[in-house]
Amino acid sequence: MSVLYVEPFGGMAGDMFLAACLDLGDSRFDLAQLRAFCREFLGAAVSLETRTVQRGALRATHLSVATIESAAARAPVGAVGAPQQDPGLVPVELAFHVLEAQGGAIERGLADLLELAARAPLSARGHERAARVLRRIAEAEARVHGLDPERVHFHELGALDTLVDVCGAVYALESLGVERVYASAPLVGSGTIRCAHGEVPVPAPGTAELLKGVPWTAGASGERTTPTGAALLAALVDSFEPPAGFSSERIGYGAGTRDPKDGPANALRVQLGRAVGASGVAGADPATREAWLLECNLDDASGEEVGFLLGELRAAGALEAWTQALSMKKDRPGVLVAALCRAEQRAALEQPFWAHTPSLGVRWTRVERTELAREEIVVELRGAKVRVKVRRAPGRTPTALDLSPEHDDLAALARATGVALRDLEREAIGLALGRFR
Fold first, then answer.
1. What is the Cα–Cα distance from 297 to 191, expressed in whole angstroms?
2. Within 13 Å and on the Cβ side, how many CA atoms surround 260?
3. Maximum Cα–Cα distance for the chain, whole Å?
4. Strands 2-7, 180-183: pairing kind
């Protein structure tokens, strides 16, 4: 199973995470690919360049993002070495999106960002993950300012910067084949910072909301973890405990723009590797992990509302979500809505109940799951790439029972070729089995 271990020992921001992933030196995710990815859904509205910089005693990669909202790229501090530039990308107006100027500043709401993110060349799961991060940011800011999430504007965060950070992070995980993300507690900083709403404490109010249920540490002056960085951690990390039985294969460092002299270096480390079982074979042994079971009985919600609720629970990070028919008080038919999640996602899974049902409360039960390791491989089938999930059962080489081709890939190929879905599934499994013989 491919694992990414994120260590925000010096802070966490979206551009730092992307820079660290680029610094891994993996051919599956490099600057040219990231530029092409952004160009596909943002046109020429952004330009990207990287530099090698020094942060304390560490050499790291710094990523600069120039957008139509900030005509000049941020100047990296302490740069050494020449930047990799893309002269063909000049920030210009988006041809497919009309920007609204309010008070001289460009502001976009959640709906605008979700619309643009939906154009990104990501998988169905990738789109769901990116939307989850964006919603978390909007909901956190809404709680701080007493607004509806749809009325939150991304002017201070920088809407296009946010899209590059969020969609780019999801694209990095997909490109690198990461199946599980672990992280250590991020350094948030200390003191106060000045923003559009005046002087506020560190972590900033929006960041503090996003880090509810997430362990963090204080120290070093100024802001070290940004709202976008906090949202990526809260929405994409599977566990804030070190991975057990982890074998690191590549290490990357991403630099923040500031180079403060106090505290740890303003940098983030990521390690890409594999989960290793007790036997030393990758993914050989099942692992027992803590999960939380959420339950709520409803007898006053329509079928459409319940279906929408399940979708929101999955978008909020549920490992699983399901319903079961009930007979409730006064012999009314009802439904049990249930979901499983990690401890750090409990608050996020409660929100859809308060927002979309009349429920007065939900129940939580700690459970344990025994989980087999998984990985994803890609096979070439009739000229197309098909992803196949591989279950690693202990003590045996994968069999057909352990292989599950991605339905979306098979469906697209079935439409393109006219071949039956079931026939394509058999072919994909056969090709995948060949990898293990």
1. 44
2. 16
3. 74
4. parallel
- Classify burial at 159, counting beta carbons within 10 Å of its beta carbon; exposed 0-12, middle 13-18, buried 19 or more: buried
- 432 by Cβ neighbours in 10 Å (0-12 / 13-18 / 19+) ranks as buried
Mention every residue, 6+ apart, whose C-beta is less than 8 A from residue 322: 310, 338, 339
Q: Could you tell me which of 352, 351, 365 has the C-alpha nearest to residue 291? A: 365
396-420, pLDDT tens digit by residue? 888 999 999 999 999 999 999 999 9
b/e code 191-200 from CB counts within 10 Å (16+ = b): eeeeeeeeeb
- Classified as helix, coil or strand, 178 is coil
SS3 call for 104 = coil
Q: What is the pLDDT of residues 308-353, one digit of tens each?
A: 999 999 988 899 999 999 998 888 899 999 999 988 889 889 999 9
Six token digits for residue 229: 């960085």
Q: Which residue has the tokens 């304390």?
A: 56
**pTM, whole model, 2 decimals?**
0.65
pLDDT of residue 322: 97
- Please report which confidence band the pLDDT of residue 285 belongs to, taking 50, 70 and 90 as the band edges: low
CA-based radius of gyration for the chain: 23
160-209 confidence digits (pLDDT tens)? 889 999 999 999 999 999 988 999 999 999 999 887 667 889 999 999 99
CA distance 167 to 179: 17
First vs last Cα of the chain: how many Å apart?
19
Contacts of 384 (CB under 8 A, 6+ apart): 409, 412, 413, 416
Q: Are 239 and 262 in contact (CB under 8 A)?
A: no
Type of residue numbered 391: R
Residue 62's CB is within 10 A of a number of other CB atoms, namely: 30
Q: Which of helix, strand or coil describes residue 343?
A: helix
How is residue 104 written in tokens? 């001289």
Token duo for residue 112: 């605008």
pLDDT recorded at residue 152: 65
